[in-house]
Amino acid sequence: MTNPSIAVTERRNGHKRHLGTILAIDDTPANLDLLMSMLVKRGYRVRPALTGEAALISAQQSPPDLILLDVNMPGMNGYEVCERLKADYRTTNIPVIFVSALDETMDKVRAFQVGGVDYVTKPFQVEEVLARIESQLTLYTQRRALEQQHQELEDLRAKELQYFNDMNRIKDEFVRTVSHDLKNPITAIQGFIYLLRQSGRIVHPEDQHLLRRIEEGAEGMRSLVLDLLDLARLEAGMALKLEELRWLEFVQFNVDTFFSAAEQNVSSWS
């Protein structure tokens, strides 16, 4: 969320590194000068605000990485500012550290209730404040990294789901197309076989054998097409109609099929 164009940088090993932007809010200019001095020396970019209203506008227009917030201010106090920040999607995740002369327990409790992450009492020790700021910025950075990883995983899951849905759709279309394209010619073949049998022209044993093999092949293809259609209906959530299995016909069909295949293998060997 740091604006690279305004971020103060620090040179380390010959490279520039952005340390982050801090919005400091206090109605006393001397307090702001002190905060800005110590933070700029540390390497942060500091944006000052003397009122809660000005702070909200600044935070919404260019969200900082962290906010230092006084409690007692004219107009909108620090608690109200924090509540407004947490209610705005643009600033809700920015860590807010209260810096106040109020030292009562209830003041500190209220600060945490409205969304603050830490509370520093004035007068403060510079190193203590800097340590608290660095700690919160580290947590904030880690949380944003985790959120980004989570979003990347969600995007990956969505892409995988879309891919599998597309593959299932393509498969279903393929099954329907193939089943339709095969079913009609198979029906025609079976019809011609029936007509040939009824005509009485197939009298030679070898011709009858060949016709029977054609019939078995057509029936096998027909069963395969029907199985594909049943599979497509099952995956589409359609209920299938159960029928009583005629065991003798089922067994006889498989015996004839294997017998025909065995005869074909024997013929090829000879």
Characterization of this structure:
The protein has seven helices and seven strands. Helix 6 (205-235) packs across helix 7 (247-269). Residues 1-16 have low confidence and may be disordered. The longest helix is centred in the middle third of the chain and has 74 residues, at 126-199. It has helices at 29-42, 52-61, 78-87, 105-113, 126-199, 205-235, 247-269, and strands at residues 9-12, 15-18, 21-25, 45-49, 66-69, 96-100, 118-121. It has two domains: 9-124, Response regulator (Rossmann fold), CATH 3.40.50; 156-241, Helix Hairpins (Orthogonal Bundle). Helix 3 (78-87) links the parallel strand 5 (66-69) and strand 6 (96-100). By secondary structure, the protein is α/β, with parallel strands linked by helices. A five-stranded parallel β-sheet has the order 4-3-5-6-7, with helices on both faces. It has a two-stranded antiparallel sheet with strand order 1-2.
